[in-house]
Amino acid sequence: MGNGLSSDRLLPCLPSFQPLHIVILGLDCAGKTTVLYRLRFNEFVNTVPTKGFNSEKIKLSLGGGGGGGGGGGGGERRRHWTTPSASFHFWDVGGQEKLRPLWRSYTRCADGLVFVVDSVDGERMEEAKTELHKITRLAENQGVPVLVVANKQDLRDALALAEMERLLALRELGAATPWHLQPACAIIGEGLREGVDKLHAMIAKRRKALRQQKKKTR
Predict the structure, then answer these.
(1) Residue 158 and residue 151: Cα distance in Å, rounded?
(2) What residues form DSSP beta bridges with 190?
(3) Is 68 part of any domain?
């Protein structure tokens, strides 16, 4: 689930050879830090509520990749396929209400945002929607791709994706903000790598559009 891409923003602040600056946000207890360390160590790490922030630089493979072989001329030739990868600098910022005014400091010059939502906590969905729309509507975040992680989808009482999309009013984020809603279970890692793939694709598409726009204005 997601929307299109607009290219009416300036070029991202980070040069392309640097790790992508990704900020992980969401309400407290949504599972943000669990997401971070599952991506970092590929295993579950017991966490405590984040008082400030956690930061990790992680290189991840993209799209699965793979290898293959081929034959010809009586002998076998093996083709070597390289798995594409990208470097990310993740910033996991505390979600307690008193810390949310600080989010803006971390999202400046962000290449992408990850907004983690507890799929079971229907009572706080309106609060999550408010915070998501507030941070994406900041002038400096206009057009920054957003990966919305519907965490805890493995639990029996988890809301359906369509219902979460409605409650979070994702289609009201505006045409300028590309987004994708990804079902996930951070504890076992299910859905996270697929979500990162989607986020990376949105960032790449946005950068390409911005480069094309820059050429037209010369």
Answers:
(1) 9
(2) 185
(3) no
